[in-house]
Structures are given as C-alpha cells and as structure tokens.
C-alpha cells in the first residue's frame, strides 16, 4: 500500500508480568476512517499510548508517514502530525477556552498562535461563542468539542479520538460525528476508539478489533461484526 500513513509492526506492551498488548500489526491509509474496538481492558488505550509516545518503551515499532517514531517524545510526535484526544477531556482549568487553544499553537512554535488562529479553531468545532468562558462553564459535549479543538489545533494528519461519545445523548453523538466527518473530509485520517457502536459503525470504513491485547479481526465493519469470534468476545454472546 503506497498511501499508508501509519504502520504498526508487532506492537506489544507488558506491565510487569501482565501482557496488555501483543503482536499488533496495523496499517492505516491516508484519509481513512478506522474504528478500533474491543471490550474494556482489551488494550485500545494502551495501543494509543504506545503510538503517542506516552510510555518509555514497548515491543515492535511504528512508522508514521514512512518515518520511524521510535525514541520521539509525545510533543515531537505531535509536531510530526500525530494527535490524540483523551477519554476524559483535559483542559487547562485555569485558562479560558480561547487560551486553551493558544497553548498547543504556541507550544508548536506556530507564528499563528494568535487569538484569530485560536478563534478559527474554535469556530471549526462550533465553540467560538464560548471563547472567553472557563472550561468549568462548559457542558459535557462542549468539553468534548474543546478537547477536539485542542487536539486538532495543529492540523494533524492523523487523529486518534479516544471515546469522545461516552455519556452523550443521541443528538450530541451526532454533533461530534458531524465534526469528525468534516475533519476527515478536510484530509485528516481518523482512528476512532469507541464503545458507542452506532457511532463507530456509522463512522468507520474499516474496523479493527482487539480482544485481550490481540487483534482478532480487521476489515469491513459489517463483515467484522458478523464474525463469530467478534460477536462472542465483543458483544458477550
Ligand atoms: N499503566 C498501567 N499499569 C498496569 N496495567 C495497565 C496500565 N494501563 C493499562 N493496564 C492494563 O492493560 C489492560 C489494557 O488496558 P487499556 O486501558 O489499554 O484497555 P482499553 O481497551 O482501552 O479499555 P477501555 O475500553 O476500558 O478504555 C487492562 O487490563 C489494564 O488494566
């Protein structure tokens, strides 16, 4: 595949004697929408943390845009175009919504760390009207939008969205989905980690399934979800 943006080769992670992730092979193409699913504790966040550089070490390797990521710190990976959101939004609580966006812009040394650039970013997630509010004044769905704005301020090529839908209403899930579709239409490759099955099946062109730290399926959503081993492990049937 010539347009592979991310290649995970034999990625594994142990915590003491416990193997949380083992032998993960995954290719993601530029512009793709991939759903990464699996039961609680199957290794999805561990995979994300390995990819984002949050752990000092892991087995295997990642290449991103054809370059190895090994040895790069999280912020260096971010500067190369790799971004993630966190399951629990992590705004800077003492900063306004607008300042929360200026931080990643300034951190990356962008000349565009201006209020205008930060506002444009907030507009893209329909949060500009709350620019001068504090994070504690935002609703859950607004906090998720702020988390997305923080992650996408640097216009990443690959975005990993870790459970952005948890606890949201049907209509709010649709709002976040619309934002993610728009980002993807603008060229951002997206890996969606999600338990809200309606959202992940609607969004994903392909599903990869982790069970107990191993990838057990990878393919078209309808085909993957029909596999007996996925039904058994993931849906608990
Ligand atoms: N820092 C850590 N130290 C020890 N064990 C850990 C650590 N992080 C994760 N684990 C364990 O690794 C396994 C995989 O966890 P992980 O958070 O990656 O699963 P997940 O698929 O993201 O789950 P969820 O859907 O609940 O978020 C779990 O058994 C978890 O307890």
From TrEMBL:
CDD domains: ABC_Mj1267_LivG_branched
Gene Ontology MF terms in the entry: ATP binding
Keywords assigned: ATP-binding, Nucleotide-binding, Transport
Keyword Transmembrane: no
InterPro entries: AAA+_ATPase, ABC_AA/LPS_Transport, ABC_transporter-like_ATP-bd, P-loop_NTPase
Domain of life: Bacteria
A Pfam family annotated for this UniProt entry: ABC_tran
Endpoints of the signal sequence: none
Keyword Transferase: no
Domain ABC transporter: 6-237
Protein's name according to its UniProt entry: ABC transporter ATP-binding protein
Taxonomic source organism: Roseomonas haemaphysalidis
């Amino acid at each position: 595949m010539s347009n592979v943006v991310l290649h995970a080769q034999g990625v594994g992670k142990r915590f003491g004697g416990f193997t949380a992730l083992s032998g993960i092979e995954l290719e993601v193409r530029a512009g793709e929408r991939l759903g990464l699913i699996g039961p609680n504790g199957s290794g999805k966040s561990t995979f994300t943390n390995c990819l984002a550089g949050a752990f000092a070490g892991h087995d295997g390797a990642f290449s991103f845009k054809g370059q190895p990521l090994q040895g790069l710190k999280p912020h260096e990976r971010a500067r190369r175009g790799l971004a993630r959101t966190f399951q629990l939004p992590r705004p800077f609580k003492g900063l306004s919504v607008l300042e929360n966006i200026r931080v990643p812009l300034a951190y990356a040394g962008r000349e565009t760390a201006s209020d205008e650039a930060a506002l444009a970013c907030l507009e893209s997630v329909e949060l500009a009207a709350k620019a001068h509010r504090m994070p504690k004044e935002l609703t859950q769905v607004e906090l998720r939008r702020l988390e997305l704005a923080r992650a996408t301020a640097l216009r990443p090529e690959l975005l990993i969205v870790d459970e952005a839908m948890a606890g949201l209403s049907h209509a709010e899930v649709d709002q976040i989905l619309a934002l993610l579709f728009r980002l993807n239409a603008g060229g951002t490759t997206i890996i969606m980690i999600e338990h809200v099955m309606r959202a992940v099946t609607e969004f994903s062109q392909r599903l990869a399934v982790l069970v107990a730290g191993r990838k057990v399926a990878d393919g078209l959503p309808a085909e993957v979800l029909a596999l007996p081993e996925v039904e058994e492990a993931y849906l608990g049937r």
